[in-house]
Design goal:
The complex is a heterodimer of chains A (about 110) and B (about 140).
Chain A lengths: L3 E5 L2 E5 L3 E2 L1 H17 L4 E4 L5 E2 L1 H16 L4 E4 L3 H9 L7 E3 L2 H8 L1
Parallel strand pairs in A: 2-4, 3-5, 4-6, 6-7
Antiparallel strand pairs in A: 1-2
Chain B lengths: L7 E4 L2 E7 L2 H18 L3 H22 L7 E9 L2 E8 L24 H7 L3 E7 L2 E9 L1
Antiparallel strand pairs in B: 1-2, 2-3, 3-4, 4-6, 5-6
Helix pairs in contact in B: 1-2, 2-3
Classes of the chains: A alpha/beta (about 110), B alpha+beta (about 140).
Chain lengths: ~110, ~140
């Protein structure tokens, strides 16, 4: 799997696929952690296309957040749809991540 | 190992789906579960919630019952009656702990695992587990 990625103002911006589930979770985790390791550690994860996520997907995002915070940086989530948002609220991860409606808000928070 | 044939058997308000204990099979099934939930009458959020609970239960079959081995059979039976969707999931792996855990506390926020059962319990109305012969039989129920 190769994720769509670009960099703006030293912030890496990555778009996740439609599904973030147990199948493929390990590949996405590896790729995101490489981006964090090789880059500034500031990461925006774009969930515009992500309509389904399970607890394996949540685990990927939590492990990325930990990797970024080890570099004293942060991960922001953008374009989260209402169903995935419900999953974050159920698991209370909406209190752990910075979540923005759009990329501009996330960029302002990270730079 | 040869893969089992995958069949959808639909009879009235019942649908029987056969899959392997392979995360790729669960990923393929996700859209089907969403469609079944929607056609039963759940709204978008309800369909997502029930689908996520079922996916978590299938993930548990793979991880815990079959220890991550991807070639074992799982049967999912979906039925609708008296305003209740019932999903029966059968596997032939290791027995589950009995009684089932009640709604567990969420793990620490920085924990990478431990949220699956919480999702199953919160997004279904009832869950039951029995061991029948060599089969684990987990039933998830959700009111319309």
């Amino acid at each position: 799997m190769s994720l769509e990625k670009r960099t703006q103002n030293s912030v890496d911006i990555v778009k996740l696929p439609e599904q973030l589930m147990m199948a493929g979770a390990a590949d996405v985790r590896t790729e995101l952690k490489e981006i964090i390791s090789n880059g500034s550690g500031k990461l925006i994860i774009d969930l515009a296309d992500t309509t389904f996520m399970d607890s394996s997907g949540l685990a990927v995002l939590v492990s990325c957040l930990q990797a970024a915070r080890k570099k004293d940086e942060d991960v922001c989530l953008v374009h989260m749809g209402p169903t995935v948002s419900a999953l974050f609220e159920l698991t209370r991860l909406h209190t752990v991540f910075q979540i923005f409606d759009d990329e501009q808000g996330a960029l302002s928070a990270l730079t | 190992m040869p893969r089992l044939p995958r069949n959808d058997i639909v009879t009235g308000d019942e649908t029987r789906l056969l899959l392997d204990s392979d995360p790729a099979d669960v990923a393929k099934l996700q859209l089907r579960l969403l469609a079944l939930s929607g056609s039963a009458g759940l709204d978008e959020l309800g369909a997502f919630q029930l689908t996520t609970a079922v996916v978590e239960a299938l993930n548990n079959c793979i991880k815990h019952a079959y220890g991550g081995e991807t070639w074992h059979p799982i049967t999912l039976q979906w039925s609708l009656g008296q305003g209740i969707i019932t999903i029966e999931i059968r596997d032939q792996g290791k027995p589950m702990p009995s009684p089932l855990p009640e709604t567990p506390e969420l793990p620490d926020e920085d924990s990478v695992s431990g949220r699956g059962w919480h999702i199953i319990r919160q997004w279904t109305d009832a869950v039951s587990y029995t061991r029948k012969g060599n089969d684990n039989v987990l039933k998830l129920m959700r009111r319309l």
